[in-house]
Amino acid sequence: MNQFFDQLQEQLNAQKPFVVYRKPNEDVVTAVLQEDAVLHYVKDYQESGFVFAPFDSNSASILIPNKTIITTNYSAEEQTKSTADASTVNTSIQAEKEAHIALVKNGVSAISKGLLTKVVLSRSIEKITQKEPLALFKELLATYKTAFCYLWYHPKVGMWLGATPEVLLKTTNQRIETSSLAGTQVYKEGEEPVWGEKEYNEQDVVTQFIKNELADKVVNLKAGSVASVRAGKLWHLRTKITGVMHNNLKEILTALHPTPATCGFPKLAAKEFILAHENYNRSFYTGFLGELNFSKEQFRAKTKRNIENRAYTAITKVSNLYVNLRCAELTQDVVKVYVGGGITIGSNPEKEWEETVAKSGTMLRIILK
Fold first, then answer.
1. 2-367, CATH topology level
2. Record's SUPFAM superfamilies (predicted)?
3. Residue 85, Cβ neighbours under 10 Å: how many?
4. Which terminus of the chain is more exposed, N or C, with fewer CB under 10 A?
């Protein structure tokens, strides 16, 4: 295991691109290494590698080709205590609070005028840290076992770190699975979440959007029931959606990204509002990332028709893509944490501010611990 992280440190010291990540509820940590500093872009989503896509779908998505992959088992003890929590880690000045509340009020006003149904509004928080990137990543692994944890680096782009709870899309050959995730509550020990109409409506907007967007792009489209899922110190509402595609992965991703959970609805109007009023560049925050068209070997058991009486191997093509939430951008000793929330007609600006404070705890409790 030490050799694994030593190799990543050497890659970083040599200023060569890499990504290291762990999928939810797994012990295997995977790294994709690039031998040079060339900047590769995704063209048609037929490529194979680790994709890193920005919020603005008009900007290019970056690919680290999966030519060199290393893995290790990393079973860290879960960290349940921290020297910081969501109520104390955020030391933003009053001006930041007032600016975000004003932004939310602006969003509610646009919704009340019928310009939008929902808009996701965000902000960034800058903190100083002396911690090394790989040390921060290891703390994410130990703290957020149910999240997709990653550290991504390219010398021509920058470095990002995150622990996201949200799946954008999973594919296994032609089968797809996605989910609508919306609504947020702070986790309280021993208590189940109680959801209100605002949260259910917010989540339903996302579900209906996905179903409508995929209706003519996949077959056998099915949506499950709404369920509460825990992500670290937060609860969310989630609905799983499945179907079968026709070799049109790019078309499906274009339809899904960004979803109402990260942008709003209607999508184009919400996106225009965000770009015009947030007053900062989201960059890769609320974009997506993950394995694109990885080949996976599956060993199938012998059958009566298998006259050689032995197992055989089938190659499966899989993609595992996650929405880039609960993330931060690392620049030397400055960490920029990104947080946001869904705004609807029933949103309370003060509570929306508090929700961003709670969400910021995912990264800040690692950075400031």
1. Anthranilate synthase (3.60.120)
2. ADC synthase
3. 14
4. N
